[in-house]
């Protein structure tokens, strides 16, 4: 993939759905090196497929790159595409992980979905490709368990 084909540096409309979102990737400048890249989406939103009400969460993506890095503007547009997408928390979280893992071919990846309460119950969803590489420095995702006010 050439840099000319990237959405970076160009006007790019918000995709209507996650399936319509175009992800871009660039070559990993350190292939074979086990390091963690983290993306945190602190204001992730989607739509409840039953009620049509908005759902809010924090999505944390950790991955050990293989041959590719995800280009961050395309990732941002992909994540924004969920704003009008009706899906349960589990589906959103797992779909994000599977789509990125298939596209990037990482050495390892995990996605943590930390969702605010729906119906009075917070739902946290976790997905990963397998065991992380041995000896990898892997920090906590930094999102505390849900705690109500008071």
From TrEMBL:
* Enzyme superclass (EC): oxidoreductase
Give the pathway annotation. Answer: tRNA modification; tRNA-queuosine biosynthesis
- Superkingdom to which the source organism belongs: Bacteria
The UniProt catalytic activity note for this protein reads: 7-aminomethyl-7-carbaguanine + 2 NADP(+) = 7-cyano-7-carbaguanine + 2 NADPH + 3 H(+)
- Which keywords does this Swiss-Prot/TrEMBL entry list? Cytoplasm, NADP, Oxidoreductase, Queuosine biosynthesis
Enumerate the residues binding substrate.
Answer: 70-72, 89-90
Any idea where this protein resides? Cytoplasm
InterPro entries with a match to the protein in the record: GTP-CH-I_C/QueF, NADPH_dep_7-cyano-7-deazaG_red, QueF, QueF_type1
| Role played | Catalyzes the NADPH-dependent reduction of 7-cyano-7-deazaguanine (preQ0) to 7-aminomethyl-7-deazaguanine (preQ1).
What is this protein identified as?
A: NADPH-dependent 7-cyano-7-deazaguanine reductase
Species in which this protein is naturally found: Chelatococcus albus
Q: What is the lineage of its organism?
A: Bacteria, Pseudomonadati, Pseudomonadota, Alphaproteobacteria, Hyphomicrobiales
């Amino acid at each position: 993939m050439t840099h000319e084909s990237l959405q970076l540096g160009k006007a790019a409309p918000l995709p209507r759905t996650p399936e319509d979102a175009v992800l871009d990737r660039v070559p990993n400048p350190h292939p074979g090196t086990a390091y963690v890249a983290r993306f945190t989406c602190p204001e992730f939103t989607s739509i409840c497929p039953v009620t049509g009400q908005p759902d809010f969460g924090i999505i944390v993506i950790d991955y050990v790159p293989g041959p590719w890095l995800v280009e961050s503007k395309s990732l941002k547009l992909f994540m924004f595409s969920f704003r009008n997408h009706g899906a349960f928390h589990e589906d959103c979280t797992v779909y994000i992980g599977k789509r990125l893992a298939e596209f990037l071919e990482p050495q390892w990846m995990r996605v943590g979905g930390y969702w605010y309460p729906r119906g009075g119950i917070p739902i946290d969803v976790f997905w990963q490709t397998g065991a992380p590489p041995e000896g990898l420095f892997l920090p906590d995702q930094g999102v505390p368990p849900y705690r109500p006010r008071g």
